[in-house]
Amino acid sequence: MMTTGECDLCAKGYPALNGFHVLMPVAGGVVTVPCDVAATGVARPSLTFDELQTAGLARCEAIFGGLGCWSESEWGCALAGEVGEACNLLKKRLRGDDPSPSVEAVMDELADVVIYADLCASKVGGDLGEAVRRKFNQVSERRGSAIRL
Fold first, then answer.
1. Is residue 87 domain-resident?
2. For a disulfide at 70, which of 23, 74, 134, 136, Cβ 3.0-4.6 Å?
């Protein structure tokens, strides 16, 4: 049964349904995301783009010599390599390889994509979080969706 108001588990303000946050109704159902508390028993804040950028730049500087060690093109090629690795795992899952790559393995590669995208954005002087918000909202507007970031 769906309740209204805040999630009883984490109080994030989402309507809740069996340990999931209900984000929006759609034809034939609803779009939901799992509540961290329901899944793990512990509330943890979502990672922000600012946190990722701060930690990523610090680690890049400390271990790899900073953003200046590669050109924009080299950062872009590193990003493309990570996208390729993620796509390779997804291809193996699609064709039913035995053993099929795990969800965790795919998620690790997708995490690498986001990390490299953030470093690449920093190299070109941009803010990935703001770019994602702007682009998401542009597509929503173009497609007639009221959902905005």
1. yes
2. 74
Mean pLDDT of the chain: 85
**Mean pLDDT throughout 120-136?**
96
Whether residue 20 is contained in a domain is answered as yes
**Single-letter code of the amino acid located at 96:** G
pLDDT band at 46 (very low <50, low <70, confident <90, very high): confident
Instruction: Report whether pLDDT(57) > 70.
Output: yes
Same domain, 54 and 124: yes
The parent domain of residue 13 ranges over 1-45
Q: Sign of dihedral through CA atoms 65, 66, 69, 70?
A: positive
Cα–Cα separations (whole angstroms), residue 106 to 82, 111, 116, 128, 148:
11, 9, 15, 22, 27
Q: What angle do CA 113, 79, 58 make, to 5 degrees?
A: 75
